[in-house]
Write a structure and sequence with these properties.
Elements lengths: L2 H74 L4 H11 L6 E8 L2 E6 L19 H10 L3 E7 L5 E13 L2 E13 H7 L4 H4 L2 E8 L6 E6 L9 E7 L2 E9 L2
Antiparallel strand pairs: 1-2, 1-5, 3-4, 4-5, 6-7, 6-9, 8-9
Length: 251
């Protein structure tokens, strides 16, 4: 056989082997990349869902304090100043996420513990105040707790209000008594649910909700990155509201 023909056939075979090898390498690379992507997606989903679960459990923990006071009011149809201060003192802890506990009979704040530093909130009507009334009215109507904020508080600083509506029975009729309100220190809340740690382990994140009054988006918390690329979105359901948690790997 002609040497040139043999060389030509060998070149064709070598080229064929090269193409097959390349295809195998590409297929393996695609398979590994696909598996890595799925693994990263699972990690992101797990991180998001555990964070959402932590938020929900923390809110439930705070609500237990409001419910404790609420049950006393429901049983006695009222709570005098001295008794309120005694109970609130027992429930309040130093360096606590709960900055203050308030009673708002008929929607008007009449009791605050601790009072020192929170005096500007005294006498505030939650059902008429422009920044508080939407959530307060929703809580009153639904009978479920509602979170308002975060926003700048009357007493200073950034915080959120947890409205827990109280109803009593008079002459066999159910009547709105008012609210037990928890004032949440927002920076401490963010720290307690370990949101800041997400960036340390390589994630960008943002939590937002819709403003119930204006329909606009309100940022609850976010990392340094303001525009997250292709985030995974996990819904966090809270009574009378929905929070949206977006998260994506920095890489």
């Amino acid at each position: 056989m002609d040497d040139s023909l043999i060389k030509k056939k060998m070149k064709i075979r070598l080229f064929g082997v090269f193409i097959i090898t390349l295809l195998i390498i590409l297929a393996c690379s695609h398979y590994l990349a696909s598996n890595q992507k799925k693994s990263e997606q699972m990690k992101v989903k797990y991180t998001a869902r555990t964070t959402v679960s932590r938020i929900e459990s923390r809110l439930d923990k705070y609500l237990e304090r409001a419910d404790f006071i609420k049950k006393i009011i429901e049983k006695a149809n009222n709570l005098d100043d001295k008794k309120f201060n005694e109970i609130a003192e027992l429930l309040h802890e130093d360096k606590d996420v709960i900055e203050a506990i308030e009673l708002a009979k008929d929607g008007v704040v009449g009791n605050i513990y601790p009072l020192k530093g929170n005096e500007p909130a005294m006498g505030l009507d939650m059902l008429t105040n422009p920044k508080r009334k939407k959530e307060a009215k929703i809580a009153k109507k639904s009978g479920q707790y509602t979170i308002a904020g975060p926003y700048e508080l009357k007493q200073g600083g950034i915080g959120a209000l947890l409205f827990d509506p109280v109803y009593i029975y008079e002459n066999g009729h159910k009547k709105f008594w008012g609210f037990v309100i928890l004032v949440i220190d927002w920076e401490k809340f963010i720290h307690e649910i370990n949101l800041n740690n997400l960036e340390d382990i390589g994630y960008d994140y943002q939590i937002w909700k819709k403003n119930l009054s204006e329909g606009t988006e309100v940022t609850i918390a976010q990392g340094n990155c303001k525009h997250i690329i292709h985030p995974l979105e996990v819904v966090c359901k809270v009574p009378n509201d929905t929070w949206y948690f977006e998260i994506a790997p920095k890489s």
